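REVIEWER CHECKLIST
Item 1: Sequence provided? yes
Item 2: Single chain? yes
Item 3: Sequence as submitted:
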Amino acid sequence: MKIFVYNYRRDDEEEFFELFSKQYQVTLGISEKSPTVESAKLAEGYECVSVITTKIDAAILGKFHEVGVRFISTRTIGFDHIDLEKAKELGIKVGNATYSPSSVADYAIMLILMSLRKMKLILNRTNYQNFALDGVRGRELPTLTVGVLGTGRIGRCVIEHLSGFGCNILAYDLYESEEVKRYAKYVALEEILQSSDIITLHMPATEDNEHLIQAETIRKMKDNVVIVNTARGSLIDTEALIEGLESGKIGAAALDVVENESRLFYKDCSTRVIGNHELLLLKSYPNVILTPHTAFYTDQAVSDMVENSIKSCCLFLQGEKNPWEVA
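Item 4: Structure as written out by the authors:
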C-alpha cells in the first residue's frame, strides 16, 4: 500500500511516520510542501494522500483527481479546510484523524486558569521587574460556573477534568451524552450564555454554528465573562469579540484559534508585516491570551494523528469500514 504525505514535518512527525509505516507495511511518498495545484502532481501513482490544515480547494482537488487520488486523510480532527462538496463531486473520499482528547482538554483548562488569574499581565509585568499587586487580583474556579459548548470527545474530557475543581458545569450539545450527565447539567444555549462565568468552545466548524459567538449572543452573557476557544476560529465573530472586550462586557479571552489564521499560524512571521489587523489588536490586549493553534500539540497527539491517518488510508485501500471517513 502507498500513501503520499504532504506537510511532512521532520522535527516531530518523522519518527512516527517511520514507526507506523513499518507497522502497517505502507510505502510513503513525502513532501514538506503544502498541497497546491502545482505540487498535486507529486501524488501521481498514489490513491491516498495525507495532509494537515492547509486549504484544499476545488482547484487542488481537481488536480488530485487528475493524478488518480481517491482518498484524502487530514491528520486533524477538523476538516473544514477541505472543499467537501467538490470532493464528493469528483468521487474523492475524505477522512479525518482523531487523537488524544486530553491534549486539547488540558490546554483549554490551562487557558481558563491563566485567564482567571490574569497570568498574561502578571508575566508581562514580571519581565520588567514590576511586582505590584494592583490590577492582578484573580478569581477562583470553584466559585464560578463554566459553560461547555460541545460535548464530543474533547468537550467530555474537559468536563471530566473540570469536575475535579469543584465548579458548577453546564453543557450544551445537540446530542446529549450520558457520561457528561455524571459531571454536568445539560441546558439550552440561552442558559449557558446567561449563566456562565466562563464559556469554553469545543464544537466543529459548520455552516450552522459560524459566528455562534457574535454581538447578540455576547449581549446575553454575564458581565466580565471569560471566553475560551480551542476549537475553530469561525465560531467567534472577531469584530464582535473586540467590541465586547473594549466595552468591558468580556472580562478576558483566551484564543488558540482565530478567523483567517491559515496564512499565519505555523509560519515564522517575525520578519514581515502581518496584515491581520484584528489579530494584532487582540494580541495587544492585556486580558487576551493568543496562541497559534497549538492546543493539540503533544507527543501522544502527534503519534495518534500520524497513526490514525495511516490506518484510515489502509482501511480505504482495503475496502473496509472506516471510522474516520467523514465524506
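Item 5: Key structural point noted by reviewer: The mean pLDDT is 97.
Item 6: Recommendation: ____
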